[in-house]
């Protein structure tokens, strides 16, 4: 049975992690280089469809290959509760959970970080203690540790992020203060992945200031020559062929957006397959792009606009009138009937959130491919 080699499903590993090797190397080398290596605390950001979930999947694969224990989580209510449960010995059942960051009042009391009560224990088990207990187990070899990946970090509660950040910071400090030889120290690696504004929210929090020392990597568009080569190699490995010219045209249509690369690849390959052809033609590329756009609008463009304010949407709609071409900042003033200071304010906000970017002197363009055309259709 011939299987389509392209995998546009969220989190599914694509055939080639094009344009991401340097980030993969940063992480893999950090595990090898021991406690304190910068890549052991990493912030991975990017717009929807830029491959954040795929990167976390690859990181977990690498860690497992290096004999680390791995825990993969997606931020939602009860995140710290689930982390503690995953770290705890089997057979311990949750009685009740009360997760909160450490709060101390001099001379009065201190509440434990990430506190949870278990039916099997009378004492609260904190996230820090759960990590330390797991690291102390014989199941984790010397020089190895625990990798925790957290996807969709922008959806995490403030308290959960504080609890996780504080616990990991203490684990790192504990390792630094031990007399264990560096080569034998067990450690924790943690990778947060989320939308671009996540970084500002994390780093602005006074309790998580240690994350400013984390290695920050932003996933961006993949260079078109790399996309073209990925199409050529992936198609050839599947038993079909595509010309250099058609592979380049498919790459241009993707605009180097990783999810669109997978969508176009999937649908153009499927178009040829339905005809029983071993050759992906220019017509297949056109069909693939048309089908990809429908899926892209639902999976990327619509979610990209979730949570934007009315003022931000007004700004984007003014830009959309020029899509797919860039927009002159001066034209936005007239179209929105707002002041230049208003335009400057929302220009800065939307650039920070990676929805738009500067494309030359006095010009702006959408960061997400086809977002302008999608707004035109609303």
What labels describe this entry?
single chain; 378 residues; alpha/beta; Rossmann fold; Arc Repressor Mutant, subunit A; 3 domains; five-stranded parallel sheet; three-stranded antiparallel sheet; 14 helices; AAA_16
Overview of this structure, please?
This protein is an alpha/beta fold. The protein has 3 domains: about 20-90 and about 125-220, P-loop containing nucleotide triphosphate hydrolases (Rossmann fold); about 235-305, no CATH class; about 310-375, Arc Repressor Mutant, subunit A, CATH 1.10.10. The protein has helices spanning about 20-35, 50-65, 80-85, 125-135, 160-175, 195-205, 225-235, 245-255, 260-275, 280-305, 310-320, 330-335, 340-350, 370-375; strands at about 40-45, 70-75, 95, 105, 110, 115-120, 145-150, 185-195, 215-220, 240, 280, 325-330, 355-360, 365. The strands form 5 sheets. A 5-stranded parallel sheet has the order 2-7-8-1-9, with helices on both faces. A 3-stranded antiparallel sheet has the order 12-14-13. Helix 4 packs across helix 5 (about 160-175), helix 7 crosses helix 8 and helix 8 packs across helix 9 (about 260-275). The chain is globular, with a radius of gyration of 24 Å. The model is unreliable at about 90-125 (pLDDT under 50).
Task: Report the C-alpha radius of gyration, rounded.
Answer: 24 Å
What is the first-to-last residue Cα distance? 41 Å
How many separate domains make up the residues?
3
Overall form: globular
Quickly count the helices: 14
Beta fraction of the residues? 15-25%
The CATH class name of the largest domain reads: Alpha Beta
SSE order, as H and E? HEHEHEEEEHEHEHEHEHHEHHEHHEEH
Within the CATH hierarchy, at the fold level, what is the topology of the largest domain?
Rossmann fold
Pfam families: AAA_16
Protein name: Orc1-like AAA ATPase domain-containing protein
Domain Orc1-like AAA ATPase: 17-169
């Amino acid at each position: 049975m011939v299987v389509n080699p392209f995998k546009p499903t969220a989190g599914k590993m694509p055939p080639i992690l094009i344009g991401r090797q340097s980030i993969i190397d940063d992480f893999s080398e950090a595990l090898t280089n021991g406690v304190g290596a910068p890549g052991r605390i990493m912030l991975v950001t990017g717009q929807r469809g830029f491959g954040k979930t795929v990167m976390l999947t690859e990181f977990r694969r690498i860690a497992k290959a290096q004999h680390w224990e791995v825990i993969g989580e997606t931020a939602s209510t009860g995140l710290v509760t689930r982390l503690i449960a995953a770290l705890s010995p089997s057979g311990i059942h949750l009685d009740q959970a009360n997760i909160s960051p450490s709060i101390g009042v001099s001379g009065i009391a201190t509440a434990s970080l990430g506190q949870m009560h278990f039916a099997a224990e009378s004492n609260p088990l904190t996230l820090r203690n759960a990590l330390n207990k797991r690291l102390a187990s014989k199941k984790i070899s010397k020089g190895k540790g625990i990798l925790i990946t957290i996807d969709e970090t922008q959806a995490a509660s403030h308290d959960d992020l504080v609890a996780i950040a504080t616990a990991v910071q203490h684990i790192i400090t504990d390792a630094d203060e031990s007399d264990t030889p560096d080569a034998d120290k067990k450690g924790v690696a943690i990778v947060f992945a989320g939308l671009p504004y996540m970084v500002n929210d994390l780093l602005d929090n006074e309790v998580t200031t240690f994350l400013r020392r984390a290695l920050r990597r932003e996933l961006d568009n993949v260079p078109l020559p790399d996309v073209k080569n990925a199409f050529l190699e992936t198609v050839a490995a599947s038993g079909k062929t595509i010309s250099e010219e058609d592979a380049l045209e498919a790459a241009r249509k993707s605009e180097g957006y990783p999810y669109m690369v997978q969508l176009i690849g999937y649908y153009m390959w499927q178009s040829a397959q339905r005809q029983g052809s071993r050759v992906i033609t220019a017509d297949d590329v056109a069909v693939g792009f048309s089908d990809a756009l429908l899926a892209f609008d639902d999976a990327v463009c619509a979610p990209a606009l979730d949570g934007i304010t009315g003022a931000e949407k007004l700004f984007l709609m003014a830009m959309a009138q020029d899509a797919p071409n860039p927009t002159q900042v001066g034209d936005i003033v007239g179209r929105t009937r707002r002041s230049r200071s208003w335009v400057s304010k929302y220009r800065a906000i939307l650039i920070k959130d990676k929805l738009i970017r500067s494309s030359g002197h006095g010009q702006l363009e959408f960061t997400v491919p086809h977002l302008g055309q999608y707004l035109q259709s609303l």
